[in-house]
Known about the structure:
The protein is mainly beta. It has one helix and 45 strands.
Amino acid sequence: MVSNFLRHCGLAAIAALLLQSATAQSLSGRLVSPGGTPIAGIQVDPGRGSNPATSDTAGLFTVSGLTNRSYDVEYRPAFGQAWAGRLIVTNISGATNVGDVVLQPGFAVSGTARTQAGASVLGCNVNIYDNAGTKLFTPYDGTDVNGNFSVMVPAGTWRVRVVPPTGAMLVPWQRDAVVVQAPVALGVTTLKTGYTVTGSVVDQTTSVPIGAVRIQATDAISLEPIVLPVDTTTTFGLFNLVLPFGLIHLEFDPPVGNTHVGRQLWDVVVIGPLALGQVRLQNGVLLSGTVNGPIGAVAGADIDVLAQDGTKIHTQHDFTAATGAFSVAVPNSAQYRVRVEPPLGSGLLGAITAPIAVAGATTAGTITLTGGVTISGTINGPAGPEANANLNFYHPTTGAELITVGDHTNANGVFSTTVPIGTWNVLIDPAEGSFGAPLTVNNVAIAGATTFHRTLAAKQLRLTVSSYGIPTLPQGGPLPIDTTIHNLTTGALPTLIDIVVQLPSSAEIPVFPTIPLDVPPVQLPLSGILFPLPVVPATATGKPLKFLVRFRAAGNGAILDSASTEFVIQ
Protein backbone atom coordinates (compact mmCIF):
# COMPACT_ATOMS: atom_id res chain seq x y z
CA MET A 1 0.00 0.00 0.00
CA VAL A 2 2.92 2.30 0.73
CA SER A 3 4.28 1.76 -2.78
CA ASN A 4 0.85 2.47 -4.27
CA PHE A 5 0.60 5.65 -2.22
CA LEU A 6 4.07 6.79 -3.39
CA ARG A 7 3.24 5.89 -6.93
CA HIS A 8 -0.01 7.88 -6.64
CA CYS A 9 1.82 10.88 -5.19
CA GLY A 10 4.45 10.69 -7.94
CA LEU A 11 1.82 10.75 -10.69
CA ALA A 12 0.10 13.67 -8.97
CA ALA A 13 3.38 15.57 -8.80
CA ILE A 14 4.08 14.95 -12.47
CA ALA A 15 0.56 16.10 -13.37
CA ALA A 16 1.03 19.24 -11.30
CA LEU A 17 4.32 19.97 -13.01
CA LEU A 18 2.74 19.49 -16.44
CA LEU A 19 -0.15 21.79 -15.52
CA GLN A 20 2.25 24.42 -14.24
CA SER A 21 4.30 24.15 -17.47
CA ALA A 22 1.17 24.47 -19.62
CA THR A 23 -0.17 27.52 -17.84
CA ALA A 24 3.24 29.18 -18.11
CA GLN A 25 2.87 29.36 -21.90
CA SER A 26 0.92 32.53 -22.61
CA LEU A 27 0.62 35.52 -24.90
CA SER A 28 0.09 39.02 -23.61
CA GLY A 29 0.34 42.57 -24.88
CA ARG A 30 -1.58 45.77 -25.49
CA LEU A 31 -3.73 46.90 -28.44
CA VAL A 32 -3.13 50.53 -29.38
CA SER A 33 -3.84 53.03 -32.15
CA PRO A 34 -1.01 54.53 -34.25
CA GLY A 35 -0.97 57.39 -31.71
CA GLY A 36 -0.63 54.99 -28.75
CA THR A 37 -4.23 55.19 -27.50
CA PRO A 38 -5.43 51.87 -25.98
CA ILE A 39 -8.10 49.99 -27.97
CA ALA A 40 -10.72 47.94 -26.11
CA GLY A 41 -12.87 45.14 -27.46
CA ILE A 42 -10.35 43.54 -29.85
CA GLN A 43 -10.47 39.76 -29.87
CA VAL A 44 -7.05 38.08 -29.80
CA ASP A 45 -7.20 34.55 -31.17
CA PRO A 46 -4.05 32.41 -31.69
CA GLY A 47 -6.17 29.53 -32.99
CA ARG A 48 -5.09 25.88 -32.67
CA GLY A 49 -7.80 25.25 -30.09
CA SER A 50 -6.84 28.10 -27.75
CA ASN A 51 -9.35 30.25 -25.91
CA PRO A 52 -9.35 33.79 -27.35
CA ALA A 53 -9.02 36.85 -25.14
CA THR A 54 -10.45 40.35 -25.57
CA SER A 55 -8.55 43.56 -24.90
CA ASP A 56 -9.80 45.56 -21.91
CA THR A 57 -10.27 49.31 -21.54
CA ALA A 58 -6.50 49.68 -21.15
CA GLY A 59 -5.97 47.69 -24.36
CA LEU A 60 -4.40 44.82 -22.37
CA PHE A 61 -4.92 41.14 -23.14
CA THR A 62 -3.60 37.76 -22.02
CA VAL A 63 -4.18 34.40 -23.69
CA SER A 64 -3.27 31.44 -21.50
CA GLY A 65 -3.01 27.71 -22.05
CA LEU A 66 -0.69 27.86 -25.06
CA THR A 67 2.31 25.70 -25.94
CA ASN A 68 5.77 26.58 -27.14
CA ARG A 69 5.19 26.81 -30.85
CA SER A 70 4.35 29.24 -33.66
CA TYR A 71 0.82 30.70 -33.84
CA ASP A 72 -1.02 32.72 -36.46
CA VAL A 73 -2.45 35.26 -34.06
CA GLU A 74 -5.56 37.06 -35.29
CA TYR A 75 -6.40 40.49 -33.89
CA ARG A 76 -10.09 40.84 -34.75
CA PRO A 77 -12.09 44.00 -34.12
CA ALA A 78 -15.79 43.46 -33.53
CA PHE A 79 -17.96 43.64 -36.66
CA GLY A 80 -18.38 47.29 -37.62
CA GLN A 81 -15.63 48.43 -35.24
CA ALA A 82 -13.57 51.03 -37.11
CA TRP A 83 -10.22 49.27 -36.95
CA ALA A 84 -8.45 47.10 -39.52
CA GLY A 85 -7.64 43.60 -38.28
CA ARG A 86 -4.18 42.08 -38.28
CA LEU A 87 -2.69 38.60 -38.44
CA ILE A 88 0.79 38.24 -36.95
CA VAL A 89 2.85 35.05 -36.84
CA THR A 90 4.14 34.80 -33.26
CA ASN A 91 6.49 32.30 -31.63
CA ILE A 92 5.42 31.41 -28.08
CA SER A 93 8.21 30.61 -25.65
CA GLY A 94 7.04 30.62 -22.06
CA ALA A 95 5.19 33.72 -20.95
CA THR A 96 5.48 35.81 -24.14
CA ASN A 97 4.71 39.54 -24.10
CA VAL A 98 4.58 41.14 -27.55
CA GLY A 99 4.28 44.69 -26.23
CA ASP A 100 2.15 47.15 -28.17
CA VAL A 101 0.26 45.81 -31.18
CA VAL A 102 -0.73 48.72 -33.41
CA LEU A 103 -4.00 48.62 -35.36
CA GLN A 104 -4.69 51.03 -38.19
CA PRO A 105 -8.01 52.86 -38.47
CA GLY A 106 -10.36 50.93 -40.73
CA PHE A 107 -12.78 52.10 -43.40
CA ALA A 108 -15.70 50.01 -44.62
CA VAL A 109 -15.50 48.71 -48.19
CA SER A 110 -18.99 47.46 -48.93
CA GLY A 111 -21.09 46.13 -51.77
CA THR A 112 -23.56 43.50 -52.90
CA ALA A 113 -22.72 40.34 -54.86
CA ARG A 114 -25.30 39.31 -57.43
CA THR A 115 -25.55 37.03 -60.44
CA GLN A 116 -26.20 38.29 -63.94
CA ALA A 117 -29.85 37.44 -63.34
CA GLY A 118 -29.88 39.70 -60.27
CA ALA A 119 -29.97 36.97 -57.61
CA SER A 120 -28.09 37.59 -54.35
CA VAL A 121 -25.08 35.34 -53.74
CA LEU A 122 -24.55 33.98 -50.22
CA GLY A 123 -21.13 32.84 -49.01
CA CYS A 124 -18.81 34.81 -51.30
CA ASN A 125 -15.35 35.54 -49.91
CA VAL A 126 -14.18 39.15 -50.21
CA ASN A 127 -10.39 39.40 -50.50
CA ILE A 128 -8.31 42.58 -50.35
CA TYR A 129 -4.78 42.69 -51.85
CA ASP A 130 -2.02 45.29 -51.92
CA ASN A 131 -0.08 46.23 -55.06
CA ALA A 132 2.40 43.40 -54.48
CA GLY A 133 -0.42 40.84 -54.37
CA THR A 134 -0.24 40.28 -50.60
CA LYS A 135 -3.65 39.45 -49.12
CA LEU A 136 -4.82 41.47 -46.15
CA PHE A 137 -6.38 39.89 -43.07
CA THR A 138 -10.05 40.91 -43.21
CA PRO A 139 -12.44 39.35 -40.68
CA TYR A 140 -16.16 39.04 -41.49
CA ASP A 141 -15.42 39.07 -45.21
CA GLY A 142 -18.26 36.84 -46.40
CA THR A 143 -21.50 37.86 -48.09
CA ASP A 144 -24.79 37.39 -46.22
CA VAL A 145 -28.09 35.97 -47.51
CA ASN A 146 -28.72 39.24 -49.36
CA GLY A 147 -25.28 39.18 -50.97
CA ASN A 148 -24.11 42.12 -48.86
CA PHE A 149 -20.57 42.49 -47.56
CA SER A 150 -18.64 45.07 -45.53
CA VAL A 151 -14.97 44.71 -44.65
CA MET A 152 -12.72 47.08 -42.73
CA VAL A 153 -9.45 47.98 -44.46
CA PRO A 154 -6.80 50.59 -43.72
CA ALA A 155 -6.30 53.67 -45.87
CA GLY A 156 -4.47 52.95 -49.12
CA THR A 157 -4.94 51.68 -52.66
CA TRP A 158 -6.15 48.11 -52.84
CA ARG A 159 -7.38 45.39 -55.18
CA VAL A 160 -10.82 44.09 -54.21
CA ARG A 161 -11.87 40.59 -55.25
CA VAL A 162 -15.22 38.88 -54.66
CA VAL A 163 -14.87 35.10 -54.95
CA PRO A 164 -18.06 33.02 -55.21
CA PRO A 165 -18.50 29.88 -53.09
CA THR A 166 -16.97 26.68 -54.45
CA GLY A 167 -19.18 24.96 -56.98
CA ALA A 168 -21.36 28.01 -57.65
CA MET A 169 -20.27 28.16 -61.33
CA LEU A 170 -19.80 31.89 -61.11
CA VAL A 171 -16.75 33.91 -62.17
CA PRO A 172 -15.04 36.03 -59.48
CA TRP A 173 -15.39 39.83 -59.68
CA GLN A 174 -12.38 42.09 -59.28
CA ARG A 175 -11.62 45.79 -59.25
CA ASP A 176 -8.08 47.17 -59.18
CA ALA A 177 -6.79 50.41 -57.69
CA VAL A 178 -9.63 51.03 -55.22
CA VAL A 179 -8.57 54.12 -53.28
CA VAL A 180 -9.66 53.97 -49.63
CA GLN A 181 -9.47 57.15 -47.58
CA ALA A 182 -13.05 56.99 -46.31
CA PRO A 183 -15.84 54.39 -46.53
CA VAL A 184 -16.19 53.05 -50.10
CA ALA A 185 -19.46 51.75 -51.51
CA LEU A 186 -18.79 49.50 -54.51
CA GLY A 187 -22.48 48.99 -55.29
CA VAL A 188 -23.51 45.81 -57.07
CA THR A 189 -20.65 43.49 -58.02
CA THR A 190 -22.00 41.23 -60.77
CA LEU A 191 -20.58 37.71 -60.89
CA LYS A 192 -20.82 36.37 -64.43
CA THR A 193 -22.12 32.89 -65.14
CA GLY A 194 -19.20 30.51 -65.58
CA TYR A 195 -18.62 27.38 -67.61
CA THR A 196 -16.20 24.56 -66.91
CA VAL A 197 -13.17 24.50 -69.22
CA THR A 198 -10.99 21.43 -68.70
CA GLY A 199 -7.85 19.97 -70.20
CA SER A 200 -4.30 18.93 -69.50
CA VAL A 201 -0.85 20.38 -70.16
CA VAL A 202 1.67 17.89 -71.54
CA ASP A 203 5.04 17.73 -73.24
CA GLN A 204 4.74 18.24 -77.00
CA THR A 205 6.79 15.14 -77.85
CA THR A 206 6.39 12.67 -74.99
CA SER A 207 2.89 13.64 -73.74
CA VAL A 208 4.24 13.50 -70.18
CA PRO A 209 2.05 15.73 -67.93
CA ILE A 210 3.50 19.03 -66.74
CA GLY A 211 2.47 20.09 -63.24
CA ALA A 212 2.43 23.52 -61.59
CA VAL A 213 1.83 25.33 -64.91
CA ARG A 214 0.24 28.70 -64.15
CA ILE A 215 -2.73 29.66 -66.31
CA GLN A 216 -3.82 33.23 -66.96
CA ALA A 217 -7.10 34.13 -68.63
CA THR A 218 -8.08 37.42 -70.29
CA ASP A 219 -11.26 38.57 -71.98
CA ALA A 220 -10.13 38.84 -75.61
CA ILE A 221 -12.47 41.75 -76.36
CA SER A 222 -12.27 43.94 -73.24
CA LEU A 223 -8.72 42.80 -72.34
CA GLU A 224 -9.81 42.54 -68.71
CA PRO A 225 -8.10 39.79 -66.69
CA ILE A 226 -10.30 36.94 -65.47
CA VAL A 227 -9.74 35.79 -61.90
CA LEU A 228 -9.00 32.07 -61.60
CA PRO A 229 -9.23 30.87 -57.96
CA VAL A 230 -7.28 27.72 -58.97
CA ASP A 231 -4.80 28.78 -61.64
CA THR A 232 -2.20 25.98 -61.77
CA THR A 233 -2.19 22.47 -63.18
CA THR A 234 -2.15 19.46 -60.89
CA THR A 235 0.75 17.02 -60.62
CA PHE A 236 -0.89 15.18 -63.52
CA GLY A 237 -1.05 18.34 -65.65
CA LEU A 238 -4.83 18.68 -65.31
CA PHE A 239 -6.72 21.97 -65.10
CA ASN A 240 -10.35 22.82 -64.40
CA LEU A 241 -11.25 26.46 -64.98
CA VAL A 242 -14.46 28.42 -64.61
CA LEU A 243 -14.64 30.95 -67.46
CA PRO A 244 -17.34 33.35 -68.63
CA PHE A 245 -19.18 33.30 -71.95
CA GLY A 246 -17.11 34.86 -74.74
CA LEU A 247 -13.72 34.83 -76.41
CA ILE A 248 -10.96 34.06 -73.93
CA HIS A 249 -7.19 34.41 -74.28
CA LEU A 250 -5.30 31.77 -72.28
CA GLU A 251 -1.61 31.74 -71.31
CA PHE A 252 0.20 28.67 -70.01
CA ASP A 253 3.36 29.47 -68.06
CA PRO A 254 5.53 26.60 -66.72
CA PRO A 255 7.15 27.04 -63.30
CA VAL A 256 10.52 28.70 -62.69
CA GLY A 257 13.41 26.57 -63.93
CA ASN A 258 11.24 24.39 -66.15
CA THR A 259 12.58 24.21 -69.71
CA HIS A 260 9.19 24.05 -71.42
CA VAL A 261 8.27 27.11 -73.46
CA GLY A 262 5.08 28.94 -72.49
CA ARG A 263 2.16 28.96 -74.87
CA GLN A 264 -0.80 31.20 -75.69
CA LEU A 265 -4.22 30.19 -77.00
CA TRP A 266 -6.03 33.07 -78.70
CA ASP A 267 -9.80 33.49 -78.84
CA VAL A 268 -10.89 30.29 -77.14
CA VAL A 269 -14.65 30.24 -77.73
CA VAL A 270 -16.55 29.62 -74.48
CA ILE A 271 -20.30 29.24 -74.97
CA GLY A 272 -20.78 26.35 -72.55
CA PRO A 273 -18.72 23.58 -70.90
CA LEU A 274 -15.59 22.97 -72.98
CA ALA A 275 -12.99 20.21 -73.08
CA LEU A 276 -9.79 21.66 -74.54
CA GLY A 277 -7.96 18.34 -74.54
CA GLN A 278 -4.19 18.42 -74.42
CA VAL A 279 -2.29 21.71 -74.46
CA ARG A 280 1.12 20.67 -75.74
CA LEU A 281 4.24 22.63 -74.74
CA GLN A 282 7.54 22.52 -76.58
CA ASN A 283 10.48 21.49 -74.43
CA GLY A 284 13.26 24.03 -74.94
CA VAL A 285 16.35 25.21 -73.11
CA LEU A 286 17.15 27.97 -70.64
CA LEU A 287 18.62 31.25 -71.87
CA SER A 288 20.12 33.15 -68.96
CA GLY A 289 22.16 36.24 -68.24
CA THR A 290 22.67 39.21 -65.95
CA VAL A 291 21.72 42.87 -66.32
CA ASN A 292 23.97 45.50 -64.75
CA GLY A 293 23.90 49.28 -64.67
CA PRO A 294 26.41 51.97 -63.70
CA ILE A 295 26.04 51.15 -60.00
CA GLY A 296 25.56 47.39 -60.15
CA ALA A 297 22.77 44.86 -60.65
CA VAL A 298 19.48 46.03 -62.18
CA ALA A 299 16.47 44.39 -60.57
CA GLY A 300 13.03 44.31 -62.17
CA ALA A 301 14.20 44.78 -65.78
CA ASP A 302 11.84 43.33 -68.39
CA ILE A 303 13.44 40.71 -70.65
CA ASP A 304 12.10 40.10 -74.16
CA VAL A 305 13.50 37.41 -76.43
CA LEU A 306 13.16 38.10 -80.16
CA ALA A 307 13.42 35.47 -82.91
CA GLN A 308 15.22 36.22 -86.17
CA ASP A 309 12.01 37.33 -87.87
CA GLY A 310 11.18 39.72 -85.02
CA THR A 311 8.62 37.50 -83.29
CA LYS A 312 8.59 37.93 -79.54
CA ILE A 313 8.96 34.54 -77.86
CA HIS A 314 6.36 34.01 -75.15
CA THR A 315 8.53 33.82 -72.04
CA GLN A 316 7.50 33.60 -68.41
CA HIS A 317 9.34 34.83 -65.29
CA ASP A 318 11.09 37.32 -67.57
CA PHE A 319 12.06 40.00 -65.04
CA THR A 320 15.49 40.23 -63.51
CA ALA A 321 15.97 39.24 -59.87
CA ALA A 322 17.58 41.41 -57.19
CA THR A 323 20.96 40.18 -58.45
CA GLY A 324 20.12 41.26 -62.01
CA ALA A 325 19.93 37.62 -63.12
CA PHE A 326 17.33 36.19 -65.48
CA SER A 327 16.58 32.77 -66.93
CA VAL A 328 13.86 32.08 -69.52
CA ALA A 329 12.87 29.03 -71.54
CA VAL A 330 13.17 29.31 -75.33
CA PRO A 331 13.03 26.84 -78.25
CA ASN A 332 16.39 25.19 -78.88
CA SER A 333 18.64 25.48 -81.95
CA ALA A 334 17.90 29.04 -83.06
CA GLN A 335 19.28 32.56 -82.88
CA TYR A 336 17.75 35.18 -80.62
CA ARG A 337 18.27 38.76 -79.58
CA VAL A 338 17.62 39.78 -75.98
CA ARG A 339 15.87 43.09 -75.46
CA VAL A 340 16.10 44.66 -72.00
CA GLU A 341 13.80 47.38 -70.68
CA PRO A 342 14.88 48.83 -67.31
CA PRO A 343 12.32 49.65 -64.61
CA LEU A 344 10.38 52.87 -65.10
CA GLY A 345 12.07 55.78 -63.36
CA SER A 346 15.44 54.04 -63.06
CA GLY A 347 17.20 56.67 -65.18
CA LEU A 348 18.57 53.89 -67.41
CA LEU A 349 18.35 53.18 -71.12
CA GLY A 350 17.34 49.82 -72.48
CA ALA A 351 19.53 47.66 -74.67
CA ILE A 352 19.32 44.92 -77.27
CA THR A 353 21.98 42.30 -77.85
CA ALA A 354 23.53 41.04 -81.05
CA PRO A 355 22.10 37.67 -82.23
CA ILE A 356 22.90 34.86 -79.80
CA ALA A 357 23.15 31.29 -81.09
CA VAL A 358 21.27 28.95 -78.75
CA ALA A 359 22.17 25.26 -78.83
CA GLY A 360 21.47 23.85 -75.40
CA ALA A 361 21.45 25.91 -72.22
CA THR A 362 23.02 29.25 -73.17
CA THR A 363 24.09 32.40 -71.38
CA ALA A 364 23.77 35.88 -72.83
CA GLY A 365 26.47 37.01 -70.42
CA THR A 366 26.26 40.40 -68.78
CA ILE A 367 24.12 43.04 -70.48
CA THR A 368 25.19 46.50 -69.37
CA LEU A 369 22.72 49.37 -69.36
CA THR A 370 23.81 52.99 -69.44
CA GLY A 371 22.32 56.05 -67.77
CA GLY A 372 20.82 59.08 -69.43
CA VAL A 373 18.92 62.27 -68.70
CA THR A 374 15.23 62.99 -68.39
CA ILE A 375 13.16 64.34 -71.24
CA SER A 376 9.56 65.09 -70.31
CA GLY A 377 6.64 67.13 -71.49
CA THR A 378 3.12 67.12 -72.84
CA ILE A 379 1.74 66.10 -76.23
CA ASN A 380 -1.48 67.77 -77.32
CA GLY A 381 -3.60 67.32 -80.41
CA PRO A 382 -6.60 68.91 -82.10
CA ALA A 383 -8.94 67.38 -79.48
CA GLY A 384 -6.76 68.14 -76.45
CA PRO A 385 -4.20 65.99 -74.60
CA GLU A 386 -3.01 63.01 -76.62
CA ALA A 387 -3.38 59.89 -74.46
CA ASN A 388 -1.19 56.85 -75.21
CA ALA A 389 0.89 58.60 -77.85
CA ASN A 390 4.23 56.88 -78.37
CA LEU A 391 7.53 58.79 -78.62
CA ASN A 392 10.33 57.05 -80.50
CA PHE A 393 13.90 58.36 -80.49
CA TYR A 394 16.27 57.67 -83.40
CA HIS A 395 19.90 58.38 -84.17
CA PRO A 396 19.87 61.11 -86.85
CA THR A 397 22.57 59.41 -88.95
CA THR A 398 22.22 55.65 -88.47
CA GLY A 399 18.49 55.59 -87.82
CA ALA A 400 19.04 53.23 -84.87
CA GLU A 401 16.19 53.41 -82.36
CA LEU A 402 16.81 53.96 -78.67
CA ILE A 403 15.13 51.58 -76.25
CA THR A 404 13.27 53.79 -73.81
CA VAL A 405 10.66 53.31 -71.10
CA GLY A 406 8.05 55.85 -70.04
CA ASP A 407 7.76 56.97 -73.64
CA HIS A 408 3.95 56.72 -73.79
CA THR A 409 1.78 59.62 -72.72
CA ASN A 410 -0.76 59.23 -69.94
CA ALA A 411 -4.40 60.35 -70.02
CA ASN A 412 -3.24 63.97 -69.66
CA GLY A 413 -0.77 63.71 -72.55
CA VAL A 414 2.21 63.75 -70.18
CA PHE A 415 5.35 61.63 -70.62
CA SER A 416 8.75 61.30 -68.93
CA THR A 417 11.52 59.10 -70.28
CA THR A 418 15.30 58.77 -70.32
CA VAL A 419 17.62 59.34 -73.30
CA PRO A 420 21.39 59.79 -73.66
CA ILE A 421 22.96 63.20 -74.02
CA GLY A 422 23.17 63.92 -77.74
CA THR A 423 21.05 64.86 -80.74
CA TRP A 424 18.07 62.72 -81.71
CA ASN A 425 15.17 62.58 -84.11
CA VAL A 426 11.83 62.20 -82.33
CA LEU A 427 8.78 60.54 -83.88
CA ILE A 428 5.50 61.22 -82.06
CA ASP A 429 3.04 58.51 -83.05
CA PRO A 430 -0.51 59.09 -81.76
CA ALA A 431 -2.75 56.23 -80.72
CA GLU A 432 -4.99 54.58 -83.30
CA GLY A 433 -8.16 56.61 -83.81
CA SER A 434 -6.56 59.88 -82.75
CA PHE A 435 -7.46 63.12 -84.56
CA GLY A 436 -3.79 64.14 -84.40
CA ALA A 437 -1.30 63.39 -87.16
CA PRO A 438 2.12 61.80 -86.50
CA LEU A 439 4.93 64.31 -86.12
CA THR A 440 8.69 63.93 -86.62
CA VAL A 441 10.95 66.48 -84.96
CA ASN A 442 14.53 66.24 -86.23
CA ASN A 443 17.77 67.09 -84.45
CA VAL A 444 16.48 67.56 -80.92
CA ALA A 445 19.56 68.45 -78.86
CA ILE A 446 19.67 66.91 -75.36
CA ALA A 447 22.38 68.28 -73.04
CA GLY A 448 20.64 67.67 -69.71
CA ALA A 449 17.14 67.39 -68.29
CA THR A 450 14.90 68.67 -71.09
CA THR A 451 11.31 69.79 -71.44
CA PHE A 452 9.67 68.84 -74.73
CA HIS A 453 6.13 70.01 -75.57
CA ARG A 454 4.47 69.56 -78.93
CA THR A 455 1.04 69.95 -80.52
CA LEU A 456 0.02 67.62 -83.32
CA ALA A 457 -1.65 68.91 -86.47
CA ALA A 458 -5.06 67.59 -87.45
CA LYS A 459 -5.33 64.59 -89.75
CA GLN A 460 -7.21 64.74 -93.00
CA LEU A 461 -8.50 61.23 -92.47
CA ARG A 462 -8.96 59.13 -89.34
CA LEU A 463 -9.05 55.32 -89.40
CA THR A 464 -9.76 52.53 -86.91
CA VAL A 465 -9.56 48.78 -87.52
CA SER A 466 -10.49 45.96 -85.14
CA SER A 467 -11.57 42.34 -85.10
CA TYR A 468 -12.90 40.08 -82.37
CA GLY A 469 -9.94 39.68 -80.08
CA ILE A 470 -7.10 37.87 -81.86
CA PRO A 471 -8.88 35.32 -84.07
CA THR A 472 -7.18 32.01 -84.86
CA LEU A 473 -7.95 31.10 -88.48
CA PRO A 474 -7.04 28.50 -91.09
CA GLN A 475 -4.94 29.48 -94.10
CA GLY A 476 -7.00 31.70 -96.37
CA GLY A 477 -9.24 33.27 -93.73
CA PRO A 478 -11.77 34.82 -93.73
CA LEU A 479 -11.06 37.51 -91.11
CA PRO A 480 -13.99 39.56 -89.73
CA ILE A 481 -13.16 43.27 -89.52
CA ASP A 482 -14.84 46.34 -88.06
CA THR A 483 -13.53 49.66 -89.34
CA THR A 484 -14.34 53.35 -89.24
CA ILE A 485 -13.20 55.70 -92.01
CA HIS A 486 -13.58 59.36 -91.16
CA ASN A 487 -12.80 62.06 -93.72
CA LEU A 488 -12.11 65.17 -91.62
CA THR A 489 -11.95 67.56 -94.57
CA THR A 490 -14.89 69.43 -96.10
CA GLY A 491 -14.88 67.69 -99.48
CA ALA A 492 -14.34 64.31 -101.08
CA LEU A 493 -10.79 63.10 -100.43
CA PRO A 494 -8.97 61.19 -103.23
CA THR A 495 -7.04 58.30 -101.61
CA LEU A 496 -5.26 55.04 -102.29
CA ILE A 497 -6.00 52.10 -99.95
CA ASP A 498 -3.43 49.44 -99.14
CA ILE A 499 -4.79 46.34 -97.38
CA VAL A 500 -2.00 43.96 -96.40
CA VAL A 501 -0.96 41.23 -94.00
CA GLN A 502 2.17 42.31 -92.16
CA LEU A 503 4.51 39.53 -91.01
CA PRO A 504 6.65 39.78 -87.83
CA SER A 505 9.60 40.78 -90.04
CA SER A 506 7.50 43.77 -91.29
CA ALA A 507 7.30 42.21 -94.76
CA GLU A 508 3.86 42.70 -96.30
CA ILE A 509 1.59 40.40 -98.31
CA PRO A 510 -1.20 42.24 -100.20
CA VAL A 511 -4.77 41.17 -99.47
CA PHE A 512 -5.95 43.17 -102.51
CA PRO A 513 -4.14 45.34 -105.04
CA THR A 514 -4.06 49.02 -104.12
CA ILE A 515 -7.59 50.47 -104.35
CA PRO A 516 -8.30 54.09 -105.38
CA LEU A 517 -11.21 55.62 -103.46
CA ASP A 518 -12.71 59.08 -103.13
CA VAL A 519 -13.76 59.23 -99.46
CA PRO A 520 -16.82 61.42 -98.79
CA PRO A 521 -16.59 64.00 -95.95
CA VAL A 522 -18.46 61.88 -93.40
CA GLN A 523 -17.75 59.20 -90.80
CA LEU A 524 -18.26 55.72 -92.27
CA PRO A 525 -18.57 52.88 -89.72
CA LEU A 526 -18.37 49.45 -91.38
CA SER A 527 -18.96 46.28 -89.35
CA GLY A 528 -18.54 42.57 -89.91
CA ILE A 529 -16.71 42.73 -93.24
CA LEU A 530 -15.14 39.37 -94.08
CA PHE A 531 -11.74 39.63 -95.74
CA PRO A 532 -10.26 36.51 -97.38
CA LEU A 533 -6.64 36.31 -96.25
CA PRO A 534 -3.70 35.38 -98.45
CA VAL A 535 -1.72 32.24 -97.71
CA VAL A 536 1.13 33.09 -95.34
CA PRO A 537 4.49 31.25 -95.16
CA ALA A 538 4.59 28.20 -92.91
CA THR A 539 7.16 30.01 -90.76
CA ALA A 540 4.51 32.65 -89.93
CA THR A 541 1.85 30.23 -88.69
CA GLY A 542 1.10 30.17 -84.98
CA LYS A 543 2.35 33.75 -84.58
CA PRO A 544 0.44 37.02 -84.21
CA LEU A 545 0.23 38.71 -87.62
CA LYS A 546 -1.21 42.12 -88.49
CA PHE A 547 -4.08 42.90 -90.80
CA LEU A 548 -3.11 46.44 -91.77
CA VAL A 549 -5.13 49.06 -93.62
CA ARG A 550 -3.32 52.16 -94.88
CA PHE A 551 -4.80 55.22 -96.59
CA ARG A 552 -2.46 57.30 -98.78
CA ALA A 553 -2.98 60.57 -100.60
CA ALA A 554 -3.77 59.94 -104.25
CA GLY A 555 -1.53 62.73 -105.41
CA ASN A 556 1.82 62.06 -103.71
CA GLY A 557 1.30 58.78 -101.86
CA ALA A 558 1.82 60.35 -98.42
CA ILE A 559 0.31 58.29 -95.61
CA LEU A 560 -2.91 59.85 -94.32
CA ASP A 561 -3.50 57.24 -91.61
CA SER A 562 -3.11 53.53 -90.92
CA ALA A 563 -4.54 51.05 -88.45
CA SER A 564 -4.18 47.34 -87.78
CA THR A 565 -5.48 44.40 -85.79
CA GLU A 566 -3.87 41.05 -84.97
CA PHE A 567 -4.79 37.49 -85.94
CA VAL A 568 -3.15 34.07 -85.99
CA ILE A 569 -3.00 31.44 -88.71
CA GLN A 570 -3.08 27.95 -87.21
